[in-house]
Amino acid sequence: MAFAAEHDVPIPYMQRTRDYYATLGYPVYRWAHFVDVPFTPLLTPLAQLHQAVKSGRLGALTPRLHGAPTNRSQRVTVETDAPELLRRCRDDGADAVLLVPN
Fold first, then answer.
1. Is residue 3 part of a domain?
2. How far apart are CA 83 and CA 81, in angstroms?
3. Model pTM?
4. In the list 33, 41, 89, 92, which could disulfide-bond 62, CB 3.0-4.6 Å?
5. What is the rounded distance in angstroms from the CA atom of residue 63 to the CA atom of residue 47?
């Protein structure tokens, strides 16, 4: 296995971010770094939606849940992801859509 070329190195984005904020006059940027990560339980609206169906506030939920990738370019989101999500929601017969970032 060959090594990558000397110029083929990761972009030093953390240092670039520090330099950028320093240029704007902000104090030295310090990234959050914890030994133990303080996770908070993820709260989803799914249980609340099921409760709304039980109580009669909503008629029904579609049989599938869909996620939208958020790690792509705006162009890919507009030209590829959004039309695909729309197609899937229409295929499921959805009257309304609740969008939650994933």
1. no
2. 6
3. 0.52
4. 92
5. 14
